[in-house]
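Q: My labmate handed me this sequence with no annotations at all. I'd like to see what the chain might look like in three dimensions before we decide whether it's worth expressing. Could you predict it?
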Amino acid sequence: CSVELPGLVRIIPGSNFFFIPVFKNVFTISAKILRTVFEKVKEHSGDPDFAVQPEVLSLLSSGDFGRYADTKGDMNVCFISNNDITGGNSGSAMFNGKGELLGLAFDGNWEAMSSDIVFEPDVQRCIGVDVRYMLFIIEKFGKASHLIQELKIEG
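A: Here is what I predict for the chain of 155 residues:
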């Protein structure tokens, strides 16, 4: 895998096939993205696939991401890598070359499904949820700062 997030960004080239609009392979929550999220939630009101708890919308719209924000104050939510992912890998930890946790694998592109037979690093992509977003949700939404205090978090 060519992903390195701590200093933010040495993510593999050409990974944005048709997935996520180009955000330099890191999907962040910014004012522009929040407007889109709010529009989608409103547009699909009543559809459980688009339901977002009001507390989450409030947390995200506050823009107060604390120590989990990037240098521009935005929240990194997920990233794309060329890790091998297939059915059953969702939830697997994703580490960099130094053994630091970057996030958890949660999806792949359609081309990734052939990896049961052969891995094709030029086309297969894995989407990982950023560990900083997970920690933010645990601390702020889950109100479990006591769990965060038990972790050894650097950076």
